[in-house]
Amino acid sequence: MNDIFKQPTGLVIKEVTRTLGKGTKILYVNDFFKHAGAEHAMHDIANAALKSGYQAYFATTSRAREPNHFTIPAIHGRARFFLLRRTVFFNADPIAIKKFNAILRTLKPDIVHCHNLYHISPGIIEQAVKSSTACIVTFHEFWPICMNRTMLIHNLKPCMQNDWSNCASKCRRRKIELLLKPFVGRGFQKRRELLLKDGATLVSVSNFIKKTLARFGYPKERIEVIPNGVDTTYFTPPHKDLERRSVLYVGRGVESKGIFDFIKIARIYQKKYGKKLEFVAIGTGIESKIVKSIRWIPRSELLHYYRRALAFLQLQYVPPGTGLAPLESMACATPVVAYAVPGVEEYLTDGIDSYLAEPGNLDNVADVLENLRQNPEKSQIMGIKARERVEKFFSITENTRRYLELYSKVYQ
User: Fold this and answer.
1) Which of 17, 149, 349, 396 has its CA 20 to 30 A from that of 275?
2) pLDDT digits (tens, 9 = 90+) for 268-316
3) What dotted CATH number matches 246-393?
4) What is the distance, to the nearest Å, from the Cα of residue 34 to the centroid of all Cα atoms in its chain?
5) Pick the CATH number of 25-229+395-411 from 3.90.180.10, 3.30.390.30, 3.40.50.2000, 3.40.190.10
């Protein structure tokens, strides 16, 4: 097996001697192979499974480059054909299901572990159950109830009232898709039926996601909460005091992750306080559009910048799950400044290990950053508290231990 599991945590999994679970095959299914937080969480779990003697395989929409990686056609795209196809056939896309069934017949996995399926038809879950394969579904976000997250910005009200116009228009971005409202509504009901089939084990990375799913008819007792974890032996504070003069953003360069607010905050801060802090963004997406005051850094240098950051900014308006990037930052004793959206209180405590700001209050965030700059001792204490919280509740050791126990349970 090739070394394909190279992670920012520094973990590299090579071929191992399989003892526990000898011959047991786990097929991980996710939108992408290597892209963002859910992908890194998936690989961390796979790393632990390999070390315990399991065999790990992957099925994603990314181009397969390894013998243990399969490609499933994405049910997504910009062309209207893809929009219509995704709305009408999302739950049972014949192309994705045909490919997935071929993988099941060829590989014969013992466990299928699904993660994000925004771009892959959730109909594959039904196929796994039909084939008598143990199936686990981890919810990193809200795709079972909202394919593009827009309802969360509107406090769930339109969808709770079975009014799917918000989804049909704003998710599709073309008025003609309003004609597809009936498909959206029926699709939601079908998606819930697929996920609640006997044989599928449901996992959420946060209590907030679990509670939100419960509001839409998913039984709480069917959902186990296993938060994401980080490698606290790799993400560590610096060995000596360093001057912290940067503000950090880590994530894809897309609006939903908060990059545009990050840029605006940089401008506001520099206008009010000068260039006393450097704003650094690590990720991919819109580098060519970034203002000159923002530096784009490759992910390979992530640890270096975590350790030297005054603060990490999390600026999402849509409630996150358990974000890996803020947890990695906290493990390096760097406090987080985040928007106070539902769910963040599960891993951030305002005034103790983080500052929580009103969503969209950019001036307030800029002022908080200046306050941290002027009070380095306070920032240091918050960083220590952040590190302690991650060690206690969000270590990768505890995360993977619980998943391995779950594998043993469902396989038996």
Assistant:
1) 349
2) 999 999 989 999 888 765 443 444 445 556 666 788 999 999 999 999 8
3) 3.40.50.2000
4) 12
5) 3.40.50.2000
